[in-house]
Amino acid sequence: MEVCDELRSFEATGVYRLDGTSTGATFLDPVRLLNASYERFRIVPSAYYSRSFGPQHQEGEPEIERPEKRRKRKRNQKPKSRELNPMEQVAEARHQEARPLLLKAHESLIKAKHLLEYISKTIKDNRHTLDAGSGSENNFVELGTSWRAPFYEITLCFQKSHVLGNEEGSFHAQKTSFPLFNSIISVEGIDEAEGEFQNRRYILPRESCFLMTDFKRVRDLIPCSPNQGYNLIVVDPPWENGCVRQKEEYPTLPNRYLLYLPVQELAHPAGALLVLWITNREKLRVFVEKELLPSWGVKNPSVFYWLKVKPDGSLIGDLDLFHHRPYECLLLGYINVNTNGEQGSNFKLLEGSQVIMSVPGAHSRKPPLEKLLSEYIPGPKPSRCIELFARELFPRWTSWGNEPLHFQDTMYFSEK
Ligand code: SAM
């Protein structure tokens, strides 16, 4: 594809395949990808890319490094003065194995000058202050644990169109209230709905569905009939991890609890692609590969990398920083699919590793993956998709977790 065509396609889709591509490298713009979900609203880029703005990231000003940060960085660098312990050695070997692929992918992004100019321009041009509106955001994690939780209701306002004779008629709003916690809420119809809860408003994409519960009630998600199972299952667990605990971004779960996620029961009988986000901790990787994925029926997973870059294309940190790699891993594998036999069907089997690059949003917010993975999803089309431990909604997806409405607050949107 010509450079201009590729950029035009990126503008429309938010997906840019780099160098044609022996590295399997792709640049994603989550804002463009998410905007495809909305008719009447759009995501505010500076609200999504909030970490690329803020006072320490003023244009032209180098980030001022505080002494305590410098001390911390020293501690985090690969311990040179002592031998690595056996776990660290395995982690370092994994990193060394991934390094050439990551460097090659990053090099192909740096060479795509027209893309980089385009990204930094669009992010810069869309700079505006995040309007948190009146009052503070709702903390669903806390509200869900209160004794009042069963009594909270969300009021959804759906736009209904009147058809007058043969003409497209006017719209009228229809309001309906639903229990907010522990019940499955679906937006039926082709337009987004607006939700009201405790003086905050939420934008719910068309055909989205969510269940806001604690892990203890995750089995409420199991479909009544297997044919309503899912073809893409994305899991982004709140892994135990010093960093998350320190920042108190969200509560974590003991890793072994994940063995009880009903992944098999959620998978469509015609097959499902499972995507699991993991951290770079070696102990976790061993648990996931040896126990968790086998217990979910996933064999021989592929590894993808999410390499995080700044709007100018540079990495968000030193690639070799021992405890703070500028990348995260995703393990992908199939459930109910024979990966050895002849497929002869409507999807491609995953082959090897790929590198996804994007400018990260809020802490732990992952880029949307459906578009990138669509050709690898088995089963009938359109695919049925679910995210476990979600903080946002997508059309035709079910989102489950203790705060799936978090990023649907209107503060992240503007009207088109
Ligand atoms: N995928 C999300 C995104 O891109 O924004 C991030 C998910 S974050 C890693 C993990 C989520 O799991 C957080 O929203 C957290 O509140 C939620 N969580 C933590 N403990 C939970 C529990 N016991 N039950 C349900 N969700 C829980």
Automatic annotation (TrEMBL):
Chain positions covered by the region annotation Disordered: 52-88
PANTHER family in alphabetical order: N(6)-ADENINE-SPECIFIC METHYLTRANSFERASE METTL4, N6-ADENOSINE-METHYLTRANSFERASE
Biased composition (Basic and acidic residues): 58-68
Protein name: Methyltransferase-like protein 2
Family: Belongs to the MT-A70-like family.
InterPro entries, per database record: DNA_methylase_N6_adenine_CS, MT-A70-like
Gene Ontology BP, a term: methylation
Biased composition (Basic residues): 69-79
Gene Ontology terms, MF aspect: methyltransferase activity; nucleic acid binding
